[in-house]
Specification:
With 313 residues, the protein is α/β, with parallel strands linked by helices. The protein contains eleven helices and 15 strands. The chain has a seven-stranded parallel beta sheet, sandwiched between helices. It has a two-stranded parallel ribbon with strand order 6-15. Strand 1, helix 1 and strand 2 form a beta-alpha-beta unit. Helix 6 runs parallel beside helix 9.
Length: 313
Amino acid sequence: MKILITGAAGFIGSHTAERCKEMGYEVLGLDNYSPYYDVSLKKLNAKTLLNKGIEVLKLDLRTDNLAERLPTDIDYIIHFSGHPGISATSSFKDYLTNNVIATQNLLNWIEDLENKPYFINIATSSIYGLEATLSEDQAPLPASWYGVTKLAAEQLVLAYSRRNLLNGTSLRLYSVYGPRERPDKMYTRLIDCGLNDKAFPLYDGSLKHLRSFTYVQDIIDGIVSVFGKEDACNGEIINLGIDKENTTAEGIEAVEEVLGLKIKMNHIPARPGDQSRTLANIDKARKLLNYNPKTTLLEGVKAQVNWFKGSFM
């Protein structure tokens, strides 16, 4: 089986590529090496993948001719590519082109293929809105450009499934952390601040925010569980995350416990559109995928601290 992974040089995409390779599949990655964060970190991930026999093509889904660059004998696409998170330095165009236009271009390419690959779209709990506690059949209320455009991308994929133009599913991920997490994300930034005596930028009111902090390998368990369950998953939206929640304050305390020190805080204004609560409802994932995330917050933080020390210290 040949798997194409978009966004393969990123955090979750690179881990997924490794897992698929370990499972014995042929894996091809692509990434546009967006400067959203330090490109050298993505290149480091790509080098790690190359050492394991996984090529990552430099390709931009928004502008490049996919028919000229991609093979046609793909069995699965796992679509991570997109403009992530909530950022004051990102424009609406950044989210629109990277999340919606890029996805449509990928679908246009698939439509011309004689043998259509199964499409796993990687979505986000931000689709649900300020409180992401809903089941998959409840109406989403996105409150950020990120959530709105990821919902649009998801619906493009599902529209193709409804019209029988391809088979696929969309997975909504919850608050993923672990080794290779982006430098702008909470745990990598906390670890960096703690080890390098810097102040962590704490958004006003965020200490009480609740999150389903989900370890990256538990997320990948869910993604690869779709393999072999294509008929049951076709056309479905499925939440992936741990069905437990911790406050931001508890996340900070976990990092401080592992590091054995107190992290300095720099209080800054709250971000518009930031979620106040995420709690993954995974009843559907348990039923369809036998999904059972197990990694505790402290276990995951320890693994991420070890990665950070081995990579940057």
